[in-house]
Amino acid sequence: MENMPSFFANILKGSYWRKRMMRFKKESYLESSQFPFSIKPHKLKPNEIFNLHSHEFIELVYVKEGSGTHTYNQSSYSISQGDVFIIEPEVEHSYHVDMHHHLLVYNIMFQPQLLSRELEALTNVTPFVDFFYMEPFFRKTVDFKSKLTLDIHQQMEFNFLLDRILEEYRRKQLGYRFLIQTKLIEMFIYLSRCYDNIYKKPVTYSLSDAELIDQVAKFIEKHHASALSLKQVSQLCGMSQSSFTAKFKEYTGITFIQYRNNVRLRIAKELLSNTDLKVISIAQEVGFDDVSNFNKMFKQIVGKSPKQFRRESSI
């Protein structure tokens, strides 16, 4: 462990195996607030443990070599060469390698604002939404075979992209930030294509309709600002739009769109009451690109304009 960063070395020491969980802060692991990104290869030797931890940033994990066990949200899964998956912020997870194997993973760490416009544009691409947003959220309720596993040819292509990003980040020559951002978008589009090719068939769930709708409702709460469509969510659930709409309304009393809008406006009301953010900023924060549409919907559902609501809530 002589050349290993101290935070990895500390976690891998056998004496560190304790019940407490570590939380990695963005200031310690990402380059800067202007460029919230980092990439690190990390190797676990036989019989080593990367203890339970969480972090403030998104992590894309690629298993370049070996195999091991990944514990995510208190459920354990086998991982091996070619696996790619997303770890969302604040989710507890850990790794363990048995005595007969090793594990080499690449951790691509970043915050969404690094690619905010690009990620927003990609929310119109269903395979990207499935891989980047939905698969991590539903991982515990869907057979983990839904993770993305690259075949040998896809691994070669992905390794090339990964090596270019790692080289740019290490050398930090003129324009490296722009090139890394460009390569990250290329990487996400490539992974989305791979995911689409592998998972054209609907995912099979072991949940009841009520449990599945409950998971969708929780997903909307967490990703209310994302431009997720009825079509995308229906496909993820393995249903037609009409079937999903009927079941969602049966269990919630309202449609998917109504539920999403209600969540957005509830959060907007909290921001209007508790912050000094401008109305246009709040509209964007909860998922409205057009402030006039936000004002219209707010008045239609709440019965008063956002400005009037703010004035009255401050009395």
Protein model, in words:
With 315 residues, this protein is α+β, with helices and mostly antiparallel strands. It folds into three domains: 6-198, Jelly Rolls; 209-256, Arc Repressor Mutant, subunit A; 258-313, Arc Repressor Mutant, subunit A (Orthogonal Bundle), CATH 1.10.10.60. The protein is 49% helix and 18% strand. It is built from 13 helices and nine strands. Strands 1, 2, 3, 4, 5, 6, 7, 8 and 9 form a nine-stranded mixed sheet that branches. Helix 4 (126-138) crosses helix 6 (176-198), helix 5 (152-171) runs antiparallel to helix 6 (176-198) and helix 7 (209-222) packs across helix 9 (241-252). The protein is globular and about 65 Å long. The protein starts with 5 loop residues before the first helix and ends with a helix.
